[in-house]
Amino acid sequence: MKADRVPVTGTLTEDGLDIWGVLGCENSKFHSSLVSSPLKLDVTSPLVAAMATCHTLTNIEGKLTGDPLDLTMFEATQWDLIEPGQDTNRYDMLTPTVVKPIRKEYQDKTKWVGGLDMETSEIPYEIGIVRQFPFSSSRQCMTVIARTLGSNHMTLYCKGAPEKISCLCRPNSIPEDFGSVLMNFTSAGYRVIALSYKPMDLKFNWLQAQKIKREQVETDLEFIGLLITQNMLKPESLPVIQELTAARIRCVMATGDNILTAVSVARNCGMVLPNEWVIQVKAQAPDETHSSRITYKILDTTVENSYAYSDCMSIMECEKWHFALDGKSWAAVCSHFPELLPYILTKGIVFSRMGPDQKTQLVEYLQNLDYIVAMCGDGANDCGALKAAHIGISLSEAEASVAAPFTSQIANIKCVLHLIREGRCALVTSFGVFKFMALYSLIQFISVLLLYMHGTMLGNVQFLYIDLVITTTLAVVMGRTGPTSKLVPQRPLGSLVAAVNVIPLLLQIVLTLVVQVAALYFLIQQDWFQPISPKDGEELIQCWENTSVFCVSCYQYLILATIYSKGYPYRNPFYTNSLFLLTLLSLTVFTTFLLVNPIDPLAEFFELMPLGEHKDMKHFRLWLLVLPLIHLISALIIEVYIANTKWLKDLVHFLTRKRVPKNKYKRVSEMTPTKLHWIAEIT
């Protein structure tokens, strides 16, 4: 895997949110101090009413259920939610969901309701939710139309992304320091929700509320404050990101949160190191006064360097920097600056305010650059990206699990490490088993060919022993070795026909041939040896040529199964696979028994030469054990010091005259900003 993409809330950070404070706004000015709890606010204020009504919570088996943000916000108000039941709907009465405060200090006070002075004991302070416009990723807000009991008009409440709410509100209701206050909170890592409201016209009735479109009512709102929540980083996020980074797996964040909040989380979880800069890409589509344009600015000044950079160009030349951009800029870049996308994608690390389609688009563009993309998400907004990614991992068993091939029952990103380790182990194991099966056929072919040249062949029982007992058993158990506990930077080979795979395989074939020929040559050099001379049509199996080649070839199957079960760096050592180790030892002992000291019935059954009384023959059997030992040492040298080594890759690249990387993202990364004239404007 070459790139890992994760959203923020619920994936890197905790599912639950904590209310850090509420900053109210009156007369286009923020309050002088932050209120730590909504309980300290006037219960009848629009700010509290917005927090109590603007949600999609529902009661399921007596328990409030819904979005974690909505749940935290509503519980902080200490209001009660009452939904219409079977009794209230018995006569088809249109009964709305009602919310009301449950604090006792408001039960004996007189309130102005609908312009009339009434005792709340006669008309309690309750708000009915008439219409809900659920949260929309494209609009980045949600809206409800509600009515206070006894009031002569309805009221609209809206909450959402601060930059979106500020566009929906009347300009004269937005404080002058709105941008700086928002930046202070988001750059510190807080998640900020803006709240607004609008009293509806007196003639606006229930029927109109049910038919009206949200675009018609989400205008000319009154900004009433900010809700600041704290979303703590999961304890598993930092070590996982650090291990992925150490393994040279690039991590990218795509989220619907504010860009400064996302950058803060990226720094806290280790995606952005303390000595690295973040440069924001701001792209704008053409309008009546300006053509399409793109600007770059340093997003923060938290970098711990002993010297300062004067502009973005000098920062880009040092290579310790990343790009960050929001969904609006992403759309503008895709539409008007498509030639810049490869460079932004190879250096981009934070993509904020991204909608579901934009997340999917991001995954597809990364794939076009030859990245192998894993997507880890937990929400409905991630479904498209989870499906488009090469590896989709859902941390939720709800909507996202339908689109993702993998679903984790543990709601943190440790599953990414586990999946990568298992994937690498599975790939290496598959290649190892394939090589073993390929060489098994060639070993047997060489054995049969050599024996045919000497007028003999393998017996039926010998074929069965090799095919069923040795090969099949080893092929079944050698794949049970588990993955290593740590990721390494080097990736396993992804192609069986790559030169660095084929060359060691050819060397193993040559080594197999040399050892079997050496066994026959050593046999011929014995003084007591007499070559066989079978008559025409005669099958002569039981002879020294057959015994020597058969026993040596049996060891070769065991040797190749051992070397192709190599552990580090992607698997545990082969001896941790107890079933494989037991099978290997059993077959080795039995094969040694067949060679060194076979009893007569067993030798007759396998059509091998019996032990005999000749002393030199016994010595020959013992000396024949040296050849498998030499084969084992030579095969290990090939696998350890030749196969998949850097010098072999460099040699292959030199011989094939490979000058540029095969992957597009590597070619793009090698191009520095000084070679590219794509910096339009620096701010």
TrEMBL record:
One Gene Ontology BP term is: intracellular calcium ion homeostasis
Topology of this chain in the membrane: Multi-pass membrane protein
Which Gene Ontology cellular-component terms appear in the entry?
membrane
User: Where found in the cell?
Assistant: Membrane
One Gene Ontology term of the molecular function aspect: polyamine transmembrane transporter activity
Chief place where the protein resides: membrane
Cited InterPro entries = ATPase_P-typ_cyto_dom_N, ATPase_P-typ_TM_dom_sf, HAD-like_sf, HAD_sf, P-type_TPase_V, P_typ_ATPase
Keyword annotations from UniProtKB, A to Z? ATP-binding, Magnesium, Membrane, Metal-binding, Nucleotide-binding, Phosphoprotein, Translocase, Transmembrane, Transmembrane helix
Where would you find the membrane-spanning parts of this chain?
A: 431-452, 464-482, 502-524, 579-599, 619-642
Matches recorded under Pfam families: Cation_ATPase
The superkingdom of the source organism is Eukaryota
Query: Can you say what this protein is called?
Result: Cation-transporting P-type ATPase C-terminal domain-containing protein
Please report the organism this UniProt entry assigns to the protein: Timema cristinae
